[in-house]
Amino acid sequence: IEDFANFTDKVKFDVKIKAATLASNDIRFFYNELGKNQYFNLKAKINGPLNNLRITRLNLLDANQTKMVGAINFKNIFGNKKQRFLMDANLTSFSSSYDNLVTILPNILGKKLPVEMKKLGYFNVVGSTQLTSTAVDADINLTSSLGKLQSVLSMNRIDFIDKATYSGNVILEDFNVGELLNREDLGKVSMNIDVDGVGFTEKYLNTSLKGDVTKIDFNKYTYTNVIVNGNFKAPNYKGQISVNDPNLVMNFDGLLDLSKKDNKYDFHINVENADLFQLKLVKDSVSVFKGDVV
Prior knowledge:
This protein is 8% helix and 57% strand.
């Protein structure tokens, strides 16, 4: 009986759910961050008190086709200010969309997820993640309508997602970065890059980049075998770029302005070979350039 005085920390659940349908309006009595009028089909095993709730053998499906399969440990869902919220998830499969997630948790995810996530469409995630109110550590594989992404990433300040900081490794496979950033001159990118920076939108993006770009669509040409080591603060890139493409062999060191307004350049380029026609930079079919550009 004494445990009921501290119900969220002392009273332990041991529940096996073979099949159940849950309504968010009923759950909102205990946790009002859930969106209204949501329905979930659930299979799971639930153990522990509410502030250390372990959900295993989880199979969750909502009316909008958001699906989660795996195991999750929630800590301090109902904690006080001194008890830090933590979600530790191992996902066999998690499928959803931006709109579906915001519908489920409008006050939490609606304020923290960048609207650019809408462009992912209906996506699927496999991997593990640890989430607090201000930070996330993730080791995931994502498949979306923009392409495939694999990342081992740590993020902080997610309570203001536009200025969130992050560091880790990102692998893209035919990922349409141009559509994500609203850039018509930029298309699909495949790369393996270490990142350390802040921001995801052009307004706040400021990140160091180091690694290999196996291919990138830029100005209607697909460049291959690119190595980067520098800093990108939209719209400027400052650092080194090495290219070993069939139609372009060069080394770049300096500042490159990628904006379409006031172009500013401060760099040194050593070009071993550049077929300007094949690169779609000129219309003259015999336009090969070699030399230094300062």
